[in-house]
Amino acid sequence: MGWITLSLRKLVLTQRVSELEHRLTKLSQEQQTLSNSSSYSERVIGVEKSEAYKNIIANYSNSINSISQNFQNGPVTDIGITGQYYTDIQSAGLEYLYNKMNTDSIFTAKEQALQDEVNQKQTQLDLEQEQIETQLEAARAEKEKLDEAISQDIKSSTISLV
Questions:
Q1: Contact of 10 with 146, CB cutoff 8 Å
Q2: Across 48-77, average pLDDT
Q3: What angle (nearest 5°) sits at the alpha carbon of residue 92, between those of residues 66 and 81?
Q4: How many structural domains does the chain have?
Q5: What is the pTM of this model?
């Protein structure tokens, strides 16, 4: 009757193996979802960054055009006006560089935060996957041993009519 107990344990192990394989499948799906979500977020950040750069360039272009129009009507030979023109152009250029550097740092921080979050989640998923694979390997090994034990128990309990 030992083989009945062993068979019940085998049934429990078979169910455990099935549950672990199902969880591995779920983890694989979670990793794919994480990858897709990360790619989408990177694209969104890229679009936001592109729009921010377009706005910076548009503001710079508008400033230069405004400066040029203001000084277009004045005499070019006046040193004070020419000096002010170059000062205004330089000021617009510095404002452009400041805005660009500020935007760069903002988007670099966003990209780094996203990457850190993705890396943390991926590490958690990898650790869980490793644990499940270890449990799955142990359950499969125990199930194989039970198969052998059941076989041996059945052979030893057979009635011989010789």
A1: yes
A2: 86
A3: 60
A4: 1
A5: 0.72
